[in-house]
Amino acid sequence: MNIAPGPLLSMINSPADLKQLSRExxxxxxxxxxxxxxxxxxxxxxxxxxxxxxxxxxxxxHYIYNTPYDQLVWDVGHQxxxxxxLTGRRDAFPTNRKYNGISGFPNRxxxxxxxxxxxxxxTSISAALGMxxxxxxxxxxxxxxxxxxxxxxxxxxxxxxxNHAGVADSDVLIILNDNCMSIDPNxxxxxxxxxDISTSQTYNKFKDDIWKALGKLPVGKNFTREMASKIEHSIxxxxxxxxxxxxxxxxxxxxxxxxxxISKLVDxxxxxxxxxxxxxxxxxxxxxxxxxxxxxDQTRWHAPGLFDKITGEIYKKSFEVPQPPKYQDVFGHTIxxxxxxxxxxxxxxxxxxxxxxxxxxxxxxxDRAFDVGICEQHAVTLSAGMATQGMRVFCNIYSSFMxxxxxxxxxxxxxxxxxxxxxxxRGGLVGEDGATHHGAYDIAYFRCIPNMVVSSPMNEQELRNxxxxxxxxxxxxPFSIRYPRGEGVMPEWRTPLEEITIGKGRKIKDGKEIAIxxxxxxxxFATTAIRELRTDGIDPAHYDLRFVKxxxxxxxxxxxxxxxxxxxxxxxxxxxxxxxxxLEFMAAHNYKADVKMLGIPDRIVEHGTPKELYRxxxxxxxxxxxxxxxxxxxxxxxxxxx
Length: 642
Ligand SMILES: Cc1ncc(C[n+]2csc(CCOP(=O)(O)OP(=O)(O)O)c2C)c(N)n1
Ligand SMILES: CC(=O)[C@@H](O)[C@H](O)COP(=O)(O)O
Ligand SMILES: [Mg+2]
Hints:
The chain is an alpha/beta fold. The strands form three sheets. A seven-stranded mixed β-sheet has the order 7-6-8-9-11-10-15, sandwiched between helices. A five-stranded parallel β-sheet has the order 1-2-3-5-4, with helices on both faces. Strands 12-14-13-16-17 form a five-stranded mixed β-sheet, with helices on both faces. Helix 23 (522-534) links the parallel strand 13 (514-518) and strand 14 (541-544). 1-deoxy-D-xylulose-5-phosphate binds next to loops.
């Protein structure tokens, strides 16, 4: 379907075109930009509400700043659709997040306007400060701007950046886009503080007046850092700097202002551009602005999938037979079942209550399930602290976001051998979010940690049983369970809970000549592949290892005694992952076999549907068929249905 942008937007091929427009015309540009985002996302999918909330900001920034010379860094980047459309990617926007299409996040490979690759939150302040400091060292007069949301501001990294920015004497502007939302409603004392300063009228009017006056002062040789500093000193006579968190960190604080008032934004940015040093502009916006359903239910419309833009109906696939649930929902329901029996169970999520489905427990047991903000490191150490007091915490973190908390996993959990249960959701290739979000590395990075159990279920029943096993009192050590994004394979998933012996895999079938060893959900790809291969008279054995640590040595002795051709399959990097564990076992026991490792290759995998990416990486059913045929000496046309 050809989606036409409005007449003004059609003429904007770069920010230079935007700059030709009058200030009055910017209103129309905002309307057309917002409509184009609605039109395209409703048909092609993607993140939605966040970009609608920064339409005016995106236009104002590119109108005032000299991008890409001036450096603009978007935090997370899920809100940067307006920025992409204004910077030469309007016509490519319908390919957003598609295989070989543009990325859903700013990406340095894609455009010179994307100054910093993002996807994980809270990096923008450090990155923009780094750019500002480098410009200063090089003697350039470049501006650096970080746009960070109130959710992303909850992370320690954002505070590390501000702590440095306040004393770095570099020209960096932090724009705090405060919409009181993360994906779910934002949490924590900081959120309450932001609401307080947004509503304290006396303080804000006073500050606003002073900074407005300051902003109007001439710049250049008549307005030096010394003058700014003198004015600041006189202001400090009136204001207790510690009454404002940001000023206490030596960032000049401006705002809050209405982030949907394009004229006000343009004026303010114009003034701020000429004020040297580190500063923070607080803007207040509405997530989902301009699409009323999204304004009302911002979590649902964070990334709604395809929808009818007129009626607001979000399309769902309809099936006549029951479908398998999402793994996240199996987690969300099972933890409640377990917590009803075991009073020591606690649930923790860093800002993903909906994405992890911990929200079910938060609703039912609000005293025992917590969203701690975008704070993966804190989530892990908090869980460790609770574990010292006898709690059995299920700390649920997406595999790729767990990368943030690696030191905490080793230092706070593993070294002390504390019984924290890590549920790593989104383990493996996640699809359209692409490189920043793939859970590619956790098998490798958890496998090397002493004391850690590393497991992965092949289906919903196994996920439930692994969760059951992990919370048993006798299993008082770190335990990780990784599972993929999306649906599993068992429509009837509410199976009785049973213990699994730690470190025991299972033989799914015997075979001839060749064995397939799988870890986690790709075992189902192997099942499909075996069905296809058997029609050609090739009959591989299949083993689902379930644990990569401790690994089932008895089972592996059986495998290596019976088979000398082995294919390993995992939804994780082949560097140091499950296949590597098999090779280590083989070497340690002096077995000789041909081993082919299928999994995520040692390169960055971009975005596309999971099926497209599994195929590209060669470990879907077709890839397994091809690998087996090659090993048994057949090179036949592969014909497996995706
Ligand atoms: C390290 C990390 N943890 C979690 C996420 C998932 N995540 C993406 S956007 C988002 C909410 C961000 O809220 P905010 O910064 O306020 O932006 P808004 O969507 O409100 O514009 C979260 C939790 C992430 N991208 N990175
Ligand atoms: C931008 C971001 O990091 C999240 O919105 C992420 O896209 C969520 O992914 P899921 O859809 O897998 O929950
Ligand atoms: Mg927000």
